């Protein structure tokens, strides 16, 4: 093979085995075996998906967040998307960059939080909706699972149709393989042999009326074929019922997933509102405490002044009462 026709191979970034570029994963450039050996997990902080680098590793923090934790410490919750990824300030890096590029955030049409950024491009919207980053990931993941289940269902239906067609073809082949019986009415008449010692054995069998066990038109074969046809019809009916049950189960699963997603979004909103209420209450209590401390300080100062005045009065009274007159002789 010439060098022009040879297809270029690229090495996997983990096992260094060479594969075509289309078979490697985008980003980390991993082959199929490495992708299967190292699972894809979500980062605890930034919620982005990444592939673990070590088998059996229970750490679910991506490399970028791990470096940020070492440099800046544990992050706080972002004030926009509410993910625990704000290492510097009160916003995560994703929301900070999006705000610089697209302006202030707007309300997401799915989770109803003010964490989506309008890119002024209809192609960037998800199904015509303006969603935040987390809701976009959830929607794409659910859409991929739906496509996978639809593909499996179509493959199952195609396999059942192929089986039915194959069975029908085998049935037709079996029907065509029946032995061709000669029409005795079209045969030329043959002179019968002279019966010297009685009828021949063939004539005796015809007279007795015995049947050939290999005859496909015998009653036993007809009964067996009828039973098989009934069994095939029953199995096809059961197969169609199972397919309908699978469809209903898939529909129920999708409905439950949608309910779970809405419940999670409502719970997230409720938690955010309770946090705001708690912060407001804490601020009010702190203000009350500061006011009370000021009152205590003023009262203590006034008491000290009154004590000083009383002490000065007592000293003045004692000084005026001490006389210097000489005693009477």
UniProtKB/TrEMBL annotation:
Keywords associated with the record: Coiled coil
Tagged with keyword Coiled coil: yes
InterPro entries: FAM76 (IPR032017)
One GO cellular component term: nuclear speck
Region (Disordered): 163-197, 295-329
Bias kind Polar residues: ranges: 315-329
Keyword check for Transcription: no
Family: Belongs to the FAM76 family.
Name the UniProt record assigns to this protein: Protein FAM76A
Organism of origin: Aphidius gifuensis (Parasitoid wasp)
């Amino acid at each position: 093979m010439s060098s022009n026709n040879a297809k270029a191979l690229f090495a996997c970034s983990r096992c260094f085995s060479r594969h075509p570029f289309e078979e490697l994963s985008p980003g980390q450039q991993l082959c199929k075996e490495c992708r299967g050996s190292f699972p894809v997990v979500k980062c605890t902080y930034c919620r982005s998906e990444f592939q673990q680098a070590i088998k059996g590793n229970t750490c679910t923090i991506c490399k970028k967040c791990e470096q940020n934790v070492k440099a800046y410490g544990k992050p706080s919750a972002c004030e926009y998307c509410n993910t625990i990824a704000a290492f510097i300030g009160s916003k995560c890096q994703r929301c900070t960059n999006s705000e610089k590029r697209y302006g202030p955030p707007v309300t997401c049409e799915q989770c109803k939080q003010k964490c989506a950024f309008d890119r002024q491009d209809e192609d960037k919207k998800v199904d015509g909706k303006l969603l935040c980053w987390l809701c976009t990931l959830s929607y794409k993941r659910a859409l991929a699972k739906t496509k996978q289940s639809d593909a499996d269902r179509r493959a199952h239906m195609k396999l059942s149709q192929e089986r039915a067609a194959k069975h029908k073809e085998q049935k037709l082949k079996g029907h065509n393989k029946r032995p061709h019986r000669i029409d005795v009415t079209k045969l030329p008449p043959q002179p019968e042999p002279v019966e010297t010692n009685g009828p021949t054995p063939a004539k005796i069998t015809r007279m007795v009326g015995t049947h050939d066990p290999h005859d496909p038109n015998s009653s036993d074969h007809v009964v067996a074929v009828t039973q098989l046809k009934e069994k095939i019809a029953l199995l096809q009916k059961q197969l169609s019922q199972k397919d309908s049950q699978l469809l209903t189960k898939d529909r129920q699963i999708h409905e439950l997933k949608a309910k779970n997603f809405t419940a999670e979004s409502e719970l997230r909103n409720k938690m955010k509102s309770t946090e705001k209420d708690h912060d407001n209450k804490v601020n009010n209590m702190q203000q009350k405490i500061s006011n009370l401390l000021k009152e205590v300080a003023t009262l203590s100062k006034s008491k000290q002044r009154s004590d000083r005045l009383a002490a000065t009065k007592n000293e003045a009274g004692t000084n005026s009462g001490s006389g210097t007159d000489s005693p009477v002789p």
